[in-house]
Every structure is written in structure tokens, then in C-alpha cells.
């Protein structure tokens, strides 16, 4: 019972700090991928947004959370030497490779699954627990992303209505389930111990990701006439592109 309670507390704190960083990450991904994608070769995504009124309120709430709490922390994190930040970044990215591997297998993409497993083995050993990206720097084996929301989409599961989750940020019903499954597949989730021991790595992980994309998030907000619509339409287009990669 005590072990179960520990994991419940751990998941709660993982969710809190993942969610605080997520509006920045989603905004950055949307803005960056919109710039890279040539004008809608597949056409605009038809967005289901029956909860727009409540979604807008939550969007504004999330943005205040970001401005008041996340930004000050990421500003401090950004002052760390780039070599230290790279070590953190590489280590946490390496821990996400098992989840990527499982999703590539489920998506029946053996080449990407093999690529991901190769990266994980090399970086976990020669790369000293993933702190150094030897697979990319020495062998040219690039990282590729996959998640369970994408996997569900590959099997024809509809995205469902667009959602803005308190603190978590932009999502939809399919990706919300995917986020939960991917979180459980993260090895850090299963590290035993009280939350005050297991919580700091999660905090550093998500704050580090937020710091990497903070400027993109601000640029997207300033460039959009309606940041809510820009976030919503961009997110749904981004996720459609992710599913259609297979």
C-alpha cells in the first residue's frame, strides 16, 4: 500500500511540473513546425472545438501560470553553462527512448524502432547513461520522436474534440490518453523512493525543455492576432502531420 501511495504522489508531482512547462513546449512545437511546413499541402485540419468558451478561459489561466511561475524558473535555468544543460538534455531524452521504441514497434515502423534501440544502447553505455549523445555525434544516428497519441492515430483513432487542460495546455482526447501512457513508460516514473527524492529530476527535465523553447513561445504569442486560435489550429495541424508521417 505504501508503494502504491508513493507512485500516486509521484505521478501527481510529475503531472504538475510537466503541465506547467507544457504550454511553452506545445507553443514552440506549433510555431516551429508551422514555419517548416509548406503551406498546407494536405489542406486545413477541421477542428472540433465544442468547448471553446471554457477552453479560452483555461488557456488564459495557463498563460498566467507560465508568466508567473515557469518563466522565472527557466530564466534561472538558462544561466547554467551550456555544457551542463546539454548533459541534462541528453540524459532525459535518452530516458524517453524506450517509450519511443515501443511506439515505433506498435506503429509497425521497424527501421525507426531499430534506430531508436541503437541510440538507447549506445548512449546508455558509451554515452555514460545518456549524458552524451554519442550515437548522433560519432555515428550520425539521429533521434526520431514517437508517442502513444500518434500511435493511436496511426490505427485510426480520431483525435476527438480539442481540449485545453488546466496547466497541461493544448491537447485532444486522443493525445491526453497518449500523454498518460507515455508518462507511465518513462523509467523515471518507476524509480522507487519518496517524492522529495524522485521529484527533482522531473522538475529539471521539464524546466529544461521549457527553457529551450521559451523564445519560440513568446514569438508565437506576439505574431498571432488571436493566440488561442493560433495555438488550437497549429496544434491540430501539427498532430495531423505527426500521424501521417508513417
Write the layout of secondary structure elements.
Layout: H1 2-36, H2 52-77, H3 82-95, H4 97-106, H5 110-125, H6 134-137, H7 148-154, E1 162-165, E2 169-172, H8 173-185, H9 195-223, H10 227-243
Antiparallel strand pairs: 1-2
Helix pairs in contact: 1-2, 1-9, 1-10, 2-9, 3-9, 4-5, 7-8, 7-10
How is this structure best described in words?
With 246 residues, this protein is mainly alpha-helical. It has one domain (2-243). 70% of the residues lie in helices and 3% in strands. It has helices at 2-36, 52-77, 82-95, 97-106, 110-125, 134-137, 148-154, 173-185, 195-223, 227-243, and strands spanning 162-165, 169-172. The chain has a two-stranded antiparallel ribbon. It is globular and about 50 Å long. The model is unreliable at 27-42 (pLDDT under 50).
What distinguishing features does this structure have?
two-stranded antiparallel ribbon, mainly alpha, globular, 246 residues, single chain
Summarize the structure.
The chain is mainly α.
- What composes the largest sheet? 2 strands, antiparallel
Residue-averaged pLDDT: 82
Percent range for β-strand residues: under 5%
* Structure class: mainly alpha
Number of helical regions: 10
Share of helix among residues? Answer: 55-70%
- The backbone outline, from C-alpha atoms, is globular
- Distance N terminus to C terminus? 42 Å
The strand line-up of the biggest sheet is 1-2
Number of domains: 1
Low-confidence runs of at least 5 consecutive residues: 27-42
The strand count comes to: 2
- The succession of helices and strands, N to C, reads HHHHHHHEEHHH
